[in-house]
Amino acid sequence: MPNIQNILAIASGKGGVGKSTVSVNLALSLKEQGLKVGLLDADIYGPSIPLMLGTVGQKPSTPDNKTFNPIMALGIELMSIGYIVLKDKATIWRGPMMSKAIESLLFQTNWSDLDYLIIDLPPGTGDAQLTLSQKAGLTAAVLVSTPQQVSLIDVKKSLEAFRKLSIPLIGLVENMSYFICDECGSKHHILGSNNIEKFSIENDISLLGQIPMHPKLSEGGDNGQPVIINSEDGLLTKVYQEIAAKIDSEVRKIEKPKKSLEDIAVTTEN
Questions:
Q1: The pTM is what?
Q2: Total structural domains in the chain?
């Protein structure tokens, strides 16, 4: 199996903070910087990557009836349980079955030589996070939160979980940080201000960037046209590109073993 240089988890403590939107636009931002990128949707119960990238209904080919060829969209490679199960069928699986499905999507996908494989984790600190942390050979993780204290309480749990698992944390992205009034041009922090700055200092984690609220973000996700490639608002593109550049810079500083996914798979089976 071809070598993947960096496997980066995008995580959140709770749902509804826009983690998948951040994952998609960061993956595309890294691609725009000349890097080869894949995106794995590890949210088995609520896959959203097919919709966000306009690939609903597509099915991966299976050249040998054992492995999958990734779906291609906007220059990045994709894999999701949403390409395999029926669109409206509920996935009612216990933890071990879910973990096995994630492993299959990771190890049985014919990824190309990639600079980054971005893994969009499900929210929380459950079986999926543990499986990928132990078996995927994660290079690092990025946490996503909104400004509210209720979100930060759960982010704290995710932060501690990654540290216990010795997964390097690149930093924290504040999503839905503020919105800019169309009429007066001023920023409004309707979900709270300074909470994440304080949190990052207290927990010794870098604040990578603050992404504003904007209708184009949700519209782009619903229409399969992510804001990073289809926005007239230069601010959103600039914010995402700056965050992606910071992530890439920090990842390059991490010392990591030279292992392919095949090496990792063999190790976990022994």
A1: 0.87
A2: 1
